[in-house]
Design brief:
The protein folds into two domains: 67 residues, no CATH class; 54 residues, no CATH class. About 4% of the residues have low confidence. The N and C termini lie far apart (36 Å). With 140 residues, it is mainly α. The longest helix is centred in the middle third of the chain and has 18 residues. Helix content is 49%, strand content 0%.
């Protein structure tokens, strides 16, 4: 079921009127329920979110990143978490690279649908190149 951080994120996004974020967290809860073997509950929650999206005209792929973990203790001074302000449309990419990146993003946005078929989305990208330089996405 939902973690404490997910419940807090749901309440905060509802209070802020941030529907895309609310839907994204609800879908994360559904995915976690599906992984835990609660497939009926997960499907009901996904159906409810999809119905609410249709009613509000919300677009499923535009949710913001939901931070669920904060660094604590000794490591909190060593780590800095930030989310880029650049959007995919701001990047200058070849068509091949853009298609590969969009595929990875699509897998992440539809991870609950993939889970229904026993699949998991890609969780890592290997970026190669010399230290200190921008790393291009791999063409694997």
């Amino acid at each position: 079921m939902a973690t404490n951080d997910q419940v807090k994120a749901l309440v905060k996004s509802h209070a802020d009127g941030d529907d895309p974020n609310f839907y994204a967290v609800a879908m994360q809860v559904a995915a976690k329920a599906a992984r835990s073997g609660h497939s009926r509950y997960a499907q009901e929650l996904r159906d409810l979110v999809n119905e609410l999206r249709k009613r509000s005209g919300g677009q499923p792929g535009l949710a913001a990143v939901v931070p669920l973990a904060q660094s604590r203790g000794e490591l909190s001074d060593l780590l800095q978490v930030s989310y880029p302000g650049a959007r995919l449309g701001d990047l200058v990419l070849s068509e091949t690279l853009r298609a590969r990146l969009e595929h990875v993003l699509l897998e992440q946005r539809q991870r609950s649908e993939l889970a229904a078929y026993g699949l998991t989305p890609a969780r890592r990208l290997l970026l190669t190149g010399p230290p200190g330089q921008v790393k291009p996405l791999p063409l694997v």
